[in-house]
Amino acid sequence: MESGDVYTVGSLRMNSRVKEISRSSREEDDEEALKWATIEKLPTYLRIKRGILTGEEGQTREIDIRSLGLQEKKILLERLVRVADENNEKFLLKLKNRIDRVGIEILTIEVRFENLNVNAEAYVGNRALPTILNFSVNLLEGFLNYLHILPSRKKPFSILHDVSGIIKPCRPPGSGKTTLLLALAGKLDSNLKFSGRLSYNCHGMDEFIPQRTSAYISQNDLHIGEMTVRETLAFSARCQGVGSRYEMLAELSRREKEANIKPDPDLDIFMKAAALEGQEANVVTDYILKILGLEVCADTMVGDEMLRGISGGQRKRVTTGEMLVGPAKVLFMDEISTAPETYDLFDDIILLSDGQIVYQGPREHMLQFFESMGFKCPERKGVADFLQEVTSKKDQKQYWARNDEPYSFVPVKEFAEAFQSFHVGRKVGDELAIPFDKTKSHPAALTTKKYGVNRIELLKACISRELLLMKRNSFVYIFKMTQLIITGIITMTLFLRTEMHRDSSTDGQIFMGALFFSVMMASGLFRFIGALGRNMIVAGTFGSFALLAVMVLGGFILSRDDVQKWWLWGYWISPMMYGQNAITVNEFLGESWRHVPPNSTEPLGVTVLKSRGIFHEAHWYWIGVAFGKPQALLSEETLSEKHANRTGELIDLSSRERTSSRESGDESRRRSTSSGSSSTRIDRIDEANQNRKRGMVLPFEPLSITVDEIGYAVDMPQEMKAQGVPEDWLELLKVVNGAFRPGVLTALMGVSGAGKTTLLDVLAGRKTSGYIEGSITISGYPKKQETFARISGYCEQTDIHSPHVTFSESLLYSAWLRLPPDVNSATRKMFIEEVMELVELTSLREALVGLPGVNGLSTEQRKRLTIAVELVANPSIIFMDEPTSGLDARAAAIVMRTVRNTVDTGRTVVCTIHQPSIDLFEAFDELFLLKQGEEIYVGPLGCHSSHLVEYFESSRESTESVRYKMVIIPATWMLEVTTAAQEAALGVNFAEVYKNSELYRRNKALIKELSIPPPASKDVYFPTQYSVFLHPVYGLPMETALVILAEPSIYCSETLLHDLCSSDVWDNILGSWIQKPVVAVERTVFYRERAAGMYSAFPYAFGQVMIELPYILLQSVIYGVIVYAMIGFDWTIAKFFWYLFFMYFTLLYFTFYGMMTVAITPNHNIAAIISSTFYAIWNLFSGFIVPRTRIPVWWRWYYWFCPVSWSLYGLVAAQFGDIQDRLDPGETVEDFVYCPLVFQGTKVGADVKDSQLLRERAV
Asked: Which run of H or of E encompasses 517?
């Protein structure tokens, strides 16, 4: 056969195969067309629930959208958006084209705000501190202000001043004050004063529901830690509903059918699935997970401070996704990212400063406006950083570009006025002058329904979430059930031989008591109290008093006939009354209580009910069921949640005034350059030289630290071994080398998982597990952790401080506990003043630290406090973990200036840093770059990062992919060119390149040089592990005392509670319960301070105990005097002081027990369960409910171990043990106390002494 014949045969075969494939494709298309024609014949409401899905192998089938499974959704999204970064825009354009093709306009909203003013009132100075004195004075002053007797002493503050502008659809705002965003979203705090006009499509805020039309995405990531990422987004989507998607899809389907248009099958299924409401997992949820890059952690728990979960960046994206899954058409996003490169993604920019709009308009004209004002952004300066600083009095001068004119400060008001005459400002003003045409606003654009779905669907969603959380917290419920079973068994065996009689009215009173305690078990009341309190401390404190009031007025402790007339309203509103009436009527009108006792004309049950003032009509059972406790508590809880201010107290607004005064005071020290970062750096070096020359009050020894061949590994996780990994160890650091010197600021950088924090923890000695190899030297001597903790400081990424002390007090305690004992008080105070000046927070010395996001210091001020707390220990070496994390450019610059000042004193500082701007990155002297546990660059940055750029450009033949461009942030460029994909493309391993470089050899030589001790030097030595023992012993009680004085919500209300309580055991239980949240908050501070080497556990515990002694004594005296007089006890000196004695020690051991349960348990829930178990058992074996003689023999031993039994013994015996008055039956009070209760009071002092001996033996 000739070659031509072979070619002909091959061509025939190929043509045959092509025809066969073509015929098969036509058949599939015809089959799909038939299926689509079948769907088209259906009515609209059925047509939008059917679709044609293409499988993995290309086969098509008709499906019901409502039964779309998880795997089918995954296949659908893979076909539509395979790679989020590349395909998402194409998908959205395809979606828009389908809608535009049939002439449907996408619903849009234009938001206008005109002359918007928001003002607040707040106390300033020392009056802003929540001390007990201020709390009491503010409470009285607020009451007098309400009566218009005294004027308010709060100072007014303007947050937004005469703000006007337009936010158009498809052009998102770049930034803005949180207050402005909250105002536009209709979520402004009710305590703020608001004026001006807000409109959506020219409709006032009262014409629709702004909270449903728009969505506010907070900068605070608040989520339920036990839920996964997918569950969090799915719950949000289920509650928000689908909005107008269903109606729009129905209209779209109708028009497509009329125009004979066949849509893309995959797109059709996606839109139909997105329009179905009531689904537990909507396809929109999976889509948002994909485009936000959350698929890798979709089934991971979000986590919180006590539960490990996703990273901080992923949590920020979850916060954004939570709103994106809903149908909101306007999104107000509050600091969703602080990365400098995101600025170029925005179209319009709103620049706010001091509550005024400086600029609003296209991003392209922003720099042009400031150039018209005489200010120019330097070439190597991020535009976002420039905008943050150009209106600041402290930073503005460096950007002055008119060298022929003298500089004078341009205030914000002048910028705002100049913008009105700028062409962009004139355009905004002209547009505001023309009202929006309401006819262009679609009725469906603005939401008028209060909820996205009906109440039944909301109830189902909430129930399913609660069931999920109960499943996730199953250990707590199992533990609680076990506790109840144990308590029930103890109670059962205690009453094993007890018989319930129904023969007399006394028997009915006993049984009514059992019913009352059953009613107390209802959890609805506790949920209501939890909803009423803004936080755990307030709920625990005032909730305890509320419980007492509800029970006292519930009809059992005091019958209805005994309640005073002016308190009857409390009886009728008490939910316990309705429950008590219903359950007692149900029991005592039963068959077993219907017999008529002798000398009576009515059934025994009715007699019992009348004796306690309870209604004896049968319909009270149904009143209790229909209108009683469950409905009352549920409605009260709902109202409390609706009106609760979960943001807590208003943040102290006086910081603005303090900042302004500080800036004006620092005017003489601000930068005097106009040429950009290079001259700024020269000024900084000059200032550093001045700092070095000046020195500090307390000298320190500059120390270097070297790392030679350091490696760190942990045991291989069992999950990875299960996947077939054979190694026993997981290496996190692989042979790392480096040197850190005094006066040199080193940046420790790398992508997530590179080993930055691991290396920092190894250097600081914070690793308590794993395997470390290699050597670490301190100025040539081997590192010893016991002494190293005394010369080093570690600033954690999380700012953990006691919230109830001031800024200066935090520094005082740190200095008191960590400085050597030979430092006198005057020197210590001078050193603290120097540190406050170094971190530029002298004006905030009396500011309360507060809780993050609630009150007190701002985020960047907390960062500087964290640095200051370590600086007052006078360390030679400081480690900082992400000191600029979560801060905007302005705040990050302030923190970095503090860090720079610290280095310029001659200390060794190492910082991990993430996503720095050009200015922040080039503030460092050297870079330690890690990748997968290995160093790939360790060396100087150079001017304009020249050394770094030169190194990476020369590490491989210069190509376009690795060549540095001046417009790129050096840190971003560095991380991009060292990725694994870039290494593969270039065929290079940067870790190997570094180890073969001259830079590596120079570093090894430097390590060798610094590993040799200098001549005449000595190793660092301290005779003790901690600074001094006595300072923590009397320093920590002082700190705790100020916590007491600074937290009125706990201690002032607790004292009031003691004054009003009427039950000894109940009062002590409440005192113990209130201690738990306080100890839980302070425990996290203790962990940080102990890790920093401040003190051991003993001084901390001793301090907590010592400070409670005088405070509880004061409580006992106040409580004892009031209750002793109210009850009418005998006014003799002996009996009164015996009463105070027992009250004091009972309060002590209950308080210490509450503190202990928090200390030995992992969280507050477990502590509550354990403590409640012993509360019940102690109450049971106290000798009051069941006297000692009636306790079964097998449980009588516990009576002697029960501390409450000794308290009750002493109280009863001291007051009634010697009274000879006779009761109705003829026996004396002394006999009555002794016979049933076995309390012998003839020798109270001896009894007390014996009880103390028994308790000492028990201990």
From this structure: helix 505-520
Model pLDDT, residue 1128: 73
CA distances from 399 to 375, 413, 675, 680, 967 (A): 5, 18, 7, 11, 18
- Higher local confidence (pLDDT), 119 or 174: 119
> Which range (146-155, 287-296, 1236-1245) has the least confidence?
1236-1245
Contact between 301 and 226 under an 8 Å Cβ cutoff? The reply is yes
Token pair, residue 1120, equals 């004892």
Task: Count other C-beta atoms under 10 Å from residue 511's C-beta.
Answer: 19
Q: How far apart are CA 755 and CA 752, in angstroms?
A: 8
Tens-place pLDDT, residues 239-286: 888 888 888 888 888 888 888 888 888 888 888 888 877 677 778 888
The strand pairing partners of 214, in sequence order, are 330
Residue 437 in tokens: 């045409």
CA angle 980, 910, 310 (to 5 degrees): 55
Identity of the residue numbered 446: L
Query: What is the three-state SS of 1091-1121?
Result: HCCCCCHHHHHHHHHHHHHHHHHHHHHHHHH
* Nearest residue to 611 via CA among 506, 531, 532: 506
- Cβ atoms of 95 and 301 closer than 8 Å: no
Query: Which of 421, 422, 391 shows the shortest CA–CA distance to 409?
Result: 391
3-state secondary structure (DSSP) of residue 1222? strand
The two tokens of residue 739 are: 């040197």
- Structural tokens at position 838: 């170094």
Of 335, 504, 279, 76, nearest in space to 860 by CA: 335
- β-pair type (203-204, 330-333): unpaired
Sign for the CA dihedral angle at 197, 198, 203, 205 comes to negative
* Contact between 164 and 356 (Cβ < 8 Å): no
3-state class of 203 per DSSP? Answer: strand
Q: Which two tokens stand for residue 374?
A: 């005489």
Could you tell me which residues are beta bridge partners of residue 194?
118
Name the residue among 846, 842, 848, 841 with its Cα closest to residue 863.
841
With beta carbons less than 8 A apart as the criterion, state whether 762 and 792 touch: no
For 396-423, write each residue's pLDDT tens digit: 888 999 888 888 999 988 998 999 999 9
Of 333-347, 595-609, 758-772, 1231-1245, the range with the lowest mean pLDDT is 1231-1245
Element (H, E) at 360: strand 356-362
Q: Closest Cα to residue 782, out of 1001, 1021, 1093? A: 1021
Distance in angstroms (rounded) separating the CA atoms of residues 761 and 778:
16
228 DSSP 8-state letter: B
pLDDT in tens, 4-39: 443 344 444 445 444 444 545 555 566 667 777 777
Longest CA–CA span in the chain (Å) reads 137
Distance between CA 576 and CA 628 in Å, rounded? Answer: 8
* 1002: confidence class by pLDDT, cuts 50, 70, 90: very high
User: Phi and psi (nearest 5°) for 444?
Assistant: -85, -5
What is the helix (H) or strand (E) element at residue 409, kind and residue range?
none
> Under a CB-based contact definition with an 8 Å cutoff, are residues 348 and 218 in contact?
no
Place of tokens 């056969």: 1
Q: Are strands 745-749 and 908-912 parallel, antiparallel or unpaired?
A: parallel
Query: pLDDT band for position 75 (50/70/90)?
Result: confident
Pair 1001, 946: CB distance under 8 Å: no
Mean pLDDT for the stretch of residues 1092-1099: 64
Rounded CA-CA distance 437/216 in Å is: 26
Q: Which domains does the chain have, with CATH numbers?
A: 503-643 (no CATH), 700-793+873-1010 (3.40.50.300), 1030-1258 (no CATH)
926, β-bridge pairs: 746, 940
- The pTM of this model reads 0.68
Q: Which amino acid is at 519?
A: V
